[in-house]
């Protein structure tokens, strides 16, 4: 479903942390949300997930996200928050199974569709070997993959993931991005915040750059992630290379150092 955000603003603690954001995100795409610490990425995601009060409008297809009942919201939108809290001593499989709650309610037996969604999410996040471990006893990166699998098992048309690649080893960063692409290829809209420029450049169909709570730029990564924009938004210079699969962008220095005589 298409996600359309218009004039979205959020105030927190009397500070305007998002100001007049407009987005038009197509289904079937992975959209990278970029910007420095404090730019407003998590706030935008929390607003979409109904976790902070926002002014403006947010529509997913014909659904007004701000007006949705929680049960319907959970069937339309899955959200991996930046704070990874696992509140219960559940096995990994039981925790991923919670992702099916919006579809089957408490106490109902799992249908084949539920089991397939759980198996698929666990396979995508490479956590099948961890299925019987207690989730709270896993490493940080393993917990991220388990919590992402729970969101993926929700099988929603919109998936929002706040820095799902941070804390993951290089192989699992790629596994994560491949999984997000697969979910998008099946028709979902996938919005993912990232600090790794190469992951954003190689795996995202579009990127949205925030700066100081405002939309700075949006479009195809190769076009948007120019040296000038990286310098202006992040204050860095980056080494740029290309291979058959796309751009490689490695931050190498602060702009202020480049400008020193
Ligand atoms: N509860 C709050 N009260 C006041 N200001 C807040 C509150 N929560 C967040 N902010 C401010 O809102 C701004 C945006 O924060 P947000 O977490 O959305 O940034 P971000 O782009 O996700 O950053 P990061 O890359 O560090 O995760 C920051 O300046 C932050 O200090």
Quick synopsis:
The protein is of the alpha/beta class and 261 residues long. The protein has one domain (3-258): P-loop containing nucleotide triphosphate hydrolases (Rossmann fold).
Short descriptors:
globular; alpha/beta; single chain; binds adenosine-5'-triphosphate; four-stranded antiparallel beta sheet; Rossmann fold; 261 residues; six-stranded mixed beta sheet; 11 helices
Question: Any overview of this molecule?
Answer:
The strands form three sheets. The chain has a six-stranded mixed β-sheet with strand order 6-7-8-3-9-10, with helices on both faces. It has eleven helices and twelve strands. With 261 residues, it is an alpha/beta fold. A hairpin with a 2-residue loop joins strand 4 (55-60) and strand 5. The model has no long low-confidence stretch (mean pLDDT 96). Helices cover 35% and strands 30% of the residues. It has a single domain, classed as P-loop containing nucleotide triphosphate hydrolases (Rossmann fold, 3-Layer(aba) Sandwich), CATH 3.40.50.300. It binds adenosine-5'-triphosphate. The site of adenosine-5'-triphosphate has 13 residues, from strand 2 and helix 1. Residues 3-237 form the ABC transporter domain.
Main β sheet profile:
6 strands, mixed
**Bulk shape:** globular
Give the low-confidence spans: none
Give the SSE order as H and E letters.
EEEHEEHEHHHHEHEHEEHHEEH
Strand order of the largest sheet: 6-7-8-3-9-10
* Number of helical segments with 4 or more residues: 11
How many domains? The number is: 1
Class based on secondary structure composition and strand pairing? alpha/beta
Radius of gyration: 19 Å
DSSP strand content: 25-35%
Q: What is the number of strand segments?
A: 12
Q: What's the CATH topology label? A: Rossmann fold
Distance between the termini: 51 Å
CATH homologous superfamily placement:
P-loop containing nucleotide triphosphate hydrolases
Helicity, as a percent range: 25-40%
Q: Which CATH class is shown?
A: Alpha Beta
Pfam family, one: ABC_tran
Family: Belongs to the ABC transporter superfamily.
Organism: Nitratireductor indicus C115
Keywords: ATP-binding, Nucleotide-binding, Translocase, Transport
């Amino acid at each position: 479903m298409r996600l359309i955000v218009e004039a979205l603003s959020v105030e927190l603690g009397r500070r305007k942390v998002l100001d007049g954001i407009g987005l038009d995100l197509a289904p079937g795409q992975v959209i990278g949300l970029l910007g420095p610490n404090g730019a407003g990425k998590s706030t935008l995601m929390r607003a979409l997930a109904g976790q902070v009060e926002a002014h403006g409008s947010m529509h997913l297809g014909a659904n007004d996200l701000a007006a949705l009942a929680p049960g319907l919201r959970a069937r339309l939108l899955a959200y991996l928050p930046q704070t990874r809290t696992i509140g219960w001593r559940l096995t990994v499989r039981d925790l991923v199974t919670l992702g099916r709650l919006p579809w089957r309610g408490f106490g109902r037996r799992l249908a084949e569709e539920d089991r397939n969604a759980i198996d698929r999410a666990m396979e995508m996040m490479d956590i099948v070997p961890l299925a019987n471990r207690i989730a709270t006893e896993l490493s940080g990166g393993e917990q991220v993959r388990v919590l992402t699998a729970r969101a993926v098992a929700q099988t929603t048309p919109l998936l929002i993931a706040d820095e799902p690649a941070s804390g993951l080893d290089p192989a699992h960063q790629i596994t994560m991005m491949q999984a997000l692409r697969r979910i998008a290829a099946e028709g979902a809209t996938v919005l993912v915040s990232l600090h790794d420029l190469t992951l954003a450049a190689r795996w995202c169909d579009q990127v949205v750059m925030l700066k100081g709570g405002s939309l700075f730029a949006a479009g195809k990564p190769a076009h948007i992630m120019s040296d000038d924009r990286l310098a202006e938004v992040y204050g860095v210079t980056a080494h740029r290379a290309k291979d058959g699969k796309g751009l490689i962008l490695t931050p190498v220095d602060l702009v202020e150092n480049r400008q020193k005589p």
